[in-house]
From TrEMBL:
Protein name: Uncharacterized protein
Transmembrane intervals: 33-49, 56-81, 87-110
Alphabetical keyword list: Membrane, Transmembrane, Transmembrane helix
Length: 125
């Protein structure tokens, strides 16, 4: 598992989430953007995973898993630091699952660069 793309995308997303949370703990301006930043990081992690998959459903489901997992860990750290209420654990993770899935979709669509190939794949050509 340590060599898998799922693990590497999750690790990259988690590192970025935790870095953002720790920076936001000390710099209040960064904390103002926890929601947008966290969902963007989850989408990026999903994108990294989705670029390596050839199947649409696997790319989207894996992106959702990666996005939600890295967000959950980041939000958990933020909650333990006292920066966010416990309710954000559920809400933030759910939203990041969604943005991770969107990132996985985008990664799948643009996996070989944008050349319109995804349209032919979806149409079965």
């Amino acid at each position: 598992m340590p060599g898998s793309i799922l693990f590497r995308a999750m690790l990259a997303g988690t590192a970025l989430q935790v870095a953002m949370v720790v920076a936001g703990h000390y710099v209040p301006v960064i904390a103002d953007f926890f929601a947008v930043g966290g969902m963007t990081i989850s989408a990026l992690a999903g994108f990294l995973y989705g670029r390596t998959r050839t199947g649409l459903s696997i790319a989207v489901m894996g992106g959702a898993l990666v996005g939600g997992a890295c967000a959950l860990i980041g939000i958990l750290v933020s909650w333990r630091l006292g920066d966010v209420p416990a309710a954000i654990l559920a809400l933030g993770t759910a939203l990041s699952v969604f943005t991770g899935a969107l990132g996985g979709l985008a990664g799948w669509l643009f996996r070989d660069g944008y050349r319109g190939r995804w349209w032919h794949d979806a149409a079965g050509r």
